[in-house]
């Protein structure tokens, strides 16, 4: 499919009980980028420790290899874009990073700790936030209530503890005007904003965005880019899977290209977009 939008689905885990992680208070969420704890992994940028490192991570579904010895470091504070043809394994990679899938081989480090077998909820509590390709808010709850749930679920915070945070997020994601509207009645752009806001309400240090610009008009996309840019400027590390390339390259500092579960390119966005592999495999241009 041409790089623009995508329609394949991703299953969202629904809140169930309220698991208490033994290290649910780790790390200190007040710390900002550059004040990391734990032994740093090697990073491609000297002086910036890696918030996330993958070492030869592999995953197969039966005979289909969807992650093939994937390795990379993500320096804290960076925005990394992930592109690749449909079925390349991009959402699977997110599921491996967040713990929704277990790798067959390899190691994943987050904030200097081995989290390869750590359950998704504990990774979320440690600051991994995620938006899903298909927004699935609680439709009968208002926008505000959706954010209250996201901000308190599984955490030691009550609704009154999070009200100020939620109000700030409503402003930053431009949802204030619809705060008291049921999520089921929102436009697509508002649903995308709510998806972003719900991820932000979990207080992420690392924010994973899965095709959040898909299906938006150019004007809506521009508005969303500005919101994501502002979040990134506030210090949040981002990994963003996107087929809307102009949106992605307006924000990210590095691009990773996946094809059949393999990393076939990683580096400066302009150089990556100009590479033969991307032109031939992803853009379908004969070089
Ligand atoms: N749970 C699963 N069981 C079996 N096959 C799966 C499963 N999840 C994904 N796949 C397959 O793995 C491959 C990679 O899927 P994935 O959703 O990660 O690709 P993607 O790059 O995100 O694609 P898109 O751009 O269309 O969203 C696809 O062929 C898909 O059909």
UniProtKB/TrEMBL annotation:
GO terms for cellular component: plasma membrane. GO terms for molecular function: ATP binding; ATP hydrolysis activity; L-isoleucine transmembrane transporter activity; L-phenylalanine transmembrane transporter activity; L-valine transmembrane transporter activity. One of its GO terms (biological process) is D-alanine transmembrane transport. Keywords: ATP-binding, Nucleotide-binding, Transport. It comes from the Bacteria. Residues 1-48 are annotated as: Disordered. Residues 52-285 form the ABC transporter domain. InterPro entries: AAA+_ATPase (IPR003593), ABC_AA/LPS_Transport (IPR051120), ABC_transporter-like_ATP-bd (IPR003439), P-loop_NTPase (IPR027417). It holds the Pfam family ABC_tran. Residues 1-25 have a biased composition (Low complexity). This is ABC transporter ATP-binding protein. It comes from Roseitalea porphyridii.
């Amino acid at each position: 499919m041409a790089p623009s939008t995508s329609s394949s689905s991703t299953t969202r885990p629904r809140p169930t009980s309220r698991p208490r992680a033994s290290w649910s208070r780790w790390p200190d969420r007040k710390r900002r980028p550059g004040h990391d704890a734990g032994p740093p992994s090697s990073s491609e940028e000297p002086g910036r420790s890696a918030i996330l490192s993958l070492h030869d991570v592999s995953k197969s579904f039966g005979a289909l290899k969807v992650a093939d010895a994937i390795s990379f470091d993500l320096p804290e504070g960076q925005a990394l874009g992930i592109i690749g043809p449909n079925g390349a394994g991009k959402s699977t990679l997110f599921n491996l990073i967040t713990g929704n899938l277990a790798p067959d081989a390899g190691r994943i480090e987050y904030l200097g700790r081995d989290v390869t077998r750590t359950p998704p909820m504990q990774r979320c509590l440690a600051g991994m936030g995620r938006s899903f390709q298909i927004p699935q808010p609680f439709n009968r709850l208002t926008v505000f209530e959706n954010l209250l749930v996201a901000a308190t679920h599984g955490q030691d915070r009550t609704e009154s503890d999070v009200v100020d945070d939620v109000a700030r997020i409503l402003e930053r994601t431009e949802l204030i005007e619809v705060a008291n509207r049921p999520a089921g009645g929102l436009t697509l752009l508002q649903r995308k904003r709510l998806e972003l806001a719900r991820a932000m309400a979990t207080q992420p240090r690392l924010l994973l965005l899965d095709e959040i610009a898909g299906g938006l008009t150019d004007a809506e996309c521009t508005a969303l880019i500005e919101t994501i840019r502002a979040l990134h400027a506030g210090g949040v590390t981002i990994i963003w899977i996107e087929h809307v390339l102009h949106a992605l390259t307006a924000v990210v500092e590095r691009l990773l290209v996946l094809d059949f579960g393999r990393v076939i390119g990683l580096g400066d966005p302009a150089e990556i977009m100009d590479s033969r592999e991307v032109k031939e495999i992803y853009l379908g241009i004969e070089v």
